[in-house]
């Protein structure tokens, strides 16, 4: 049986919100977790954010910001959260999730005083953090 076509390489036109040179914005009814949630993806099948060209990255952010500015007053959001995971569909895309009045801040569900919560990671020892920072410089 052939693999299911990539939803970002072959988006359903009725759910497409906008396009620019390198990206497409769309909704997926089966994946929308709240009103105002949408996704922006690069058109080319790229698996990781670090593999984006400068033009693709700029286009991804540009379209995302343009649409968040339009969506905030439309849905009554205080702001938008931007989440990039790409584990289920290995094609670079950003979920844009509205923070509505009365919503709990998402940061407390992701981070604790010791770092990542849950199974995602662990607190990084200061020496390891310093080593990473120095290597990145």
Compute the separation of the termini in Å. Answer: 48 Å
Major sheet summary line: 5 strands, antiparallel
The radius of gyration over CA amounts to 17 Å
Could you tell me the strand content as a percent range? 15-25%
Overall structural class, as computed from helix and strand content, comes to alpha+beta
Protein model, in words:
- This protein is of the alpha+beta class and 137 residues long.
- The protein is built from 3 helices and 7 strands, in the order E-E-E-H-E-E-H-E-E-H.
- The strands form 2 sheets. A 5-stranded antiparallel sheet has the order 1-2-3-5-4, covered by helices on one side. Strands 6-7 form a two-stranded antiparallel ribbon.
- The longest helix has 22 residues, at 54-75.
- 18% of the residues are buried.
Features:
two-stranded antiparallel ribbon; alpha+beta
Summarize the entry for a quick read.
This protein is an alpha+beta fold and 137 residues long. It has helices spanning 54-75, 107-110, 126-136; strands at residues 16-19, 23-26, 38-42, 79-83, 93-99, 111-112, 115-116. The chain is globular.
Describe the secondary structure blueprint for this structure.
Blueprint: E1 16-19, E2 23-26, E3 38-42, H1 54-75, E4 79-83, E5 93-99, H2 107-110, E6 111-112, E7 115-116, H3 126-136
Antiparallel strand pairs: 1-2, 2-3, 3-5, 4-5, 6-7
